[in-house]
Design brief:
single chain; Rossmann fold; 2 domains; five-stranded parallel beta sheet; 13 helices; 18% strand
């Protein structure tokens, strides 16, 4: 029996690679004859870099770059297929890198993203896959563009510090000073967020509060991003702020659009990069999962994408998740089984703390079931 494991991470507890390892151990204990192939997945958020590097036998390169609070820190970029760099927002300018008491998107920056890209440019790379999810920022990619050499000045001609608090003061923009190697490069940007940059459905109103912004700051940020976008679009003579995904990662999507980047489905991009469909073609069962599955899983999440690919090739998709939430019953249209790993009543914190143990138990049960099915079918 051929089984493909293609889970997302169980956010806050297990990476997608760890999920694969745990399930694989469970099958080794109960159904050793099964051919189990691991393909860790992600959707552009935290864990995307690890998932792609693991699945493609890629490598990581350690670099120093500014974190979301403009502090120096060690981070990494991935290299796959010899010529493609993976840059992950969550590991450079991610929300988890900012302590709760310091979360204020007026004071965070994507500057480190530009520094990491420049380091990769220095190393000779020109092809980039950018994972946008999990940012702590709402600067519209102002920091990124500043680090890449774009000049932003106020009415006095003074350069502005690369934080969202400066966006309202931008009076002049000059892309002529950008690192020329940027225009020799391609940027595929992984995001399942389709929000525009500004307005009630934009970056500030929808995602700002999650990053620590209060109501007054949300209004300020939205107006400031509008000013920033207007200045850039007037300079480049092209509109970007209303394109789908411009508001992703606090507007980082907008900045990559100005560099010629293409925003694509995160799950789809990762699947293509790790050649998931090729590995599913001969599978009998495909197991996927995430930290919590509910009705929102239907909207571009990894498990739905994996289930769709599995069914396309006649494989049976199984969902194993940390928990099942409201509306999960709709997932039965896509999966032959939907299972939460909890073994009894427990808090979310307890479930997360025991995630490895609980997943292993549930995976052993699935392995025992599939082994029995196989024996019955073979009779």
């Amino acid at each position: 029996m051929n089984i493909v494991l293609a889970p997302d991470s169980f956010k806050g507890s297990l990476s997608s690679a760890a999920v694969c390892d745990i399930i694989k151990r469970a099958f080794a204990a109960e159904y050793e004859e099964a051919n189990v192939v691991s393909v860790p997945m992600a959707d552009g958020g935290e864990g995307t870099l690890e998932a792609i590097v693991t699945a493609t036998n890629g490598t990581t390169v350690t670099v120093e770059a500014k974190g979301p609070l403009f502090e120096k820190r060690q981070t990494v970029y991935g290299v796959v297929n010899g010529d493609t760099v993976i840059v992950e927002t969550a590991s450079i300018a991610g929300l988890t890198l900012v302590p709760n008491e310091k979360r204020n998107p007026l004071c965070t920056t994507t500057y480190g993203m530009g520094e990491v890209i420049r380091a990769a440019l220095d190393a000779g790379y020109r092809r980039f896959l950018v994972a946008l999810g999990g940012s702590a920022t709402n600067d519209g990619g102002f920091g990124l563009l500043s680090a890449l050499g774009v000049t932003f000045t106020n009415e006095k001609g003074e350069r502005l510090p690369p934080f969202a608090a400066s966006l309202a003061d931008i009076a002049h923009v000059d892309f002529a000073t950008i690192d020329a190697r940027v225009y020799e490069s391609t940027f595929l940007v992984a995001s399942d967020v389709t929000n525009p940059l500004c307005g009630k459905n934009g970056a500030s109103f929808v995602f700002g509060p999650q990053k620590g912004a209060n109501a007054e700051q949300v209004r300020f940020l939205d107006n400031a991003l509008s000013n920033y976008a207007a200045k850039i679009e007037a300079h480049l003579r092209q509109a970007y702020q209303h394109e789908k995904g411009a508001g992703a990662a606090g507007g980082l999507g907008f900045a990559f659009l100005t560099l010629g980047g293409k925003i694509v489905s995160g799950a789809e991009l990762v699947a293509q990069t790790v050649r998931l469909e090729e590995k599913i073609k001969d599978a009998h069962f495909v197991m996927t999962g995430e930290g919590r599955s509910d009705e929102q899983t239907l909207y571009g999440k990894v498990p739905l994408y994996v289930a769709t690919l599995a069914r396309k090739h006649g494989a049976k998709p199984i969902l194993l998740s940390g928990s099942l939430g409201a509306g999960f019953e709709r997932l039965y249209d896509y999966f032959i089984s939907c299972d939460a790993i909890a073994t009894g009543p427990m808090t979310v914190d307890e479930c997360m703390e025991r995630a490895e143990e609980l997943l292993y138990i549930k995976a052993r049960n699935v392995a025992r079931l599939l082994k029995t099915i196989r024996k019955e079918v073979s009779r």
